[in-house]
Amino acid sequence: MAEEPRDELPTNLPRLSLHVPEPKFRPGDAVDFTAVDIPPAGAARRPDTAALAADFPDLAYTLVRVLDDDHQAVGPWNPRLSPDVLRRILRNMVRLRAFDDRMFRAQRQGKTSFYMKALGEEAVAVAAAHALDYEDMCFPSYRQQGLLIVRDWPLVDMMNQIYSNTADRLQGKQLPIMYSAREAGFFSISGNLTTQYPQAVGWAMASAAKGDTRIAAVWCGEGSTAEGDFHNACTFAAVYRAPVVMNVVNNQWAISSFSGFAGAESTTFAARAVGYGIAGLRVDGNDALAVYAATQWAAERARTNQGPTLIEHFTYRAEGHSTSDDPSQYRSAGEPTAWPLGDPICRLKDHLVTIGEWDEERHAAQDKECAEEVRAAQKAAEANGILGHGLHQPLDSLFDGVFEEMPWHLREQRAQMMAEEAASGRPWARK
Ligand SMILES: Cc1ncc(C[n+]2csc(CCOP(=O)(O)OP(=O)(O)O)c2C)c(N)n1
Ligand SMILES: [Mg+2]
């Protein structure tokens, strides 16, 4: 119970008050992002990967940027990728956007209950997946479907999971979009925010304890850094110098709470690293080349036993949080277009065009090809059923897959459920 206010207060002391963060713009407000500090591309230094974390705390407070306003790749972080690799990164971002677009619409058509887009943040997962080794273990949040897309996981399999249909390998036991693909080094997504952080650090520690060569990479949103799990993971990673790349995707929003509620008014998210003695980088998350370079640098540190790196990807969530969200209720509609770091796909496309390795016609044709690839995958997935067309899995499979050997009380519950269903006459009980 709250304590009653005191009757008598000292007259010689100021009254205490709390600071409650408030976002700059609310629905209907004109948006002006000029206060967002954007250092020029190429300005941040690039320390040697063997440098001590304490030697470059400044990199946690700036922005590593490679693509400049003239679409050139500049500065010490330029990863100098071949045009072929640049085109592959671009294509995978386009594939991801096409996938998101199609599945978002599928939810609106009632074919699934839930979907989450990565609109505007495509570079974060896609460029990182290109910079990591296929063998490295990824611990994603729900917004890194780009990892699976780059690792060429079948789109049909992802859709089967979204539809919880007969071909869903997870048998409808996970919320749509909470994929799990061990063969692609993609750890099961958890709806409980930030559990993947200590799991990733633990996996990385195990890899090192076994004398293996594989590293881990993990992602969470900026809002999720407020979870205790984030901080426990940072402590373990710092103490044991775990071979892990820790990514914080600062897309400014955590459903309807803005980044200020996770601490963004006082400092950067990359600055969390400084307090733990971890290497920290703050990166332009809409610059695929900067994301690639930072990930490659952090991965090299991890591979050479220099320990963990925390990378803040400064970006913007251009869409609602999920299909269950309506951002027009809490933020200005002008924000996504006013975001000063632009669109990651356009920026990489403009770079390729500028260096003479791409053109608008090829880009338009690629858009069509990727949309067609996704459409064909959707058709194949829907042949296995969509959510809402009744049960796709045998009812008694509900209890499978938790324990190696089912305990007696679950066997009893299963038998009771089946008996009740048989008595109800509902069709699936007879399966
Ligand atoms: C432990 C826990 N708390 C709250 C939620 C509800 N929830 C789901 S997503 C979300 C916002 C997370 O925001 P952020 O970490 O910034 O990631 P983003 O969605 O922006 O990618 C919240 C509060 C949850 N799933 N788990
Ligand atoms: Mg967020």
From TrEMBL:
Residues 92-386 form the Dehydrogenase E1 component domain. Residues 14-53 form the 2-oxoisovalerate dehydrogenase E1 alpha subunit N-terminal domain. It holds the Pfam family E1_dh. It comes from the Bacteria. GO terms for biological process: branched-chain amino acid catabolic process. InterPro entries: Alpha-ketoacid_DH_E1_comp, DH_E1, Oxoisoval_DH_suAlpha_N_dom, THDP-binding. Coiled coil: none annotated. Keywords: Oxidoreductase, Thiamine pyrophosphate. It catalyses: N(6)-[(R)-lipoyl]-L-lysyl-[protein] + 3-methyl-2-oxobutanoate + H(+) = N(6)-[(R)-S(8)-2-methylpropanoyldihydrolipoyl]-L-lysyl-[protein] + CO2. One of its GO terms (molecular function) is branched-chain 2-oxo acid dehydrogenase activity. The keyword Oxidoreductase applies. Its cofactor is thiamine diphosphate. CDD domains: TPP_E1_PDC_ADC_BCADC. Its EC number is 1.2.4.4. Belongs to the BCKDHA family. The branched-chain alpha-keto dehydrogenase complex catalyzes the overall conversion of alpha-keto acids to acyl-CoA and CO(2). It contains multiple copies of three enzymatic components: branched-chain alpha-keto acid decarboxylase (E1), lipoamide acyltransferase (E2) and lipoamide dehydrogenase (E3). This is 2-oxoisovalerate dehydrogenase subunit alpha. It comes from Sphingomonas abaci. The lineage of its organism: Bacteria, Pseudomonadati, Pseudomonadota, Alphaproteobacteria, Sphingomonadales.
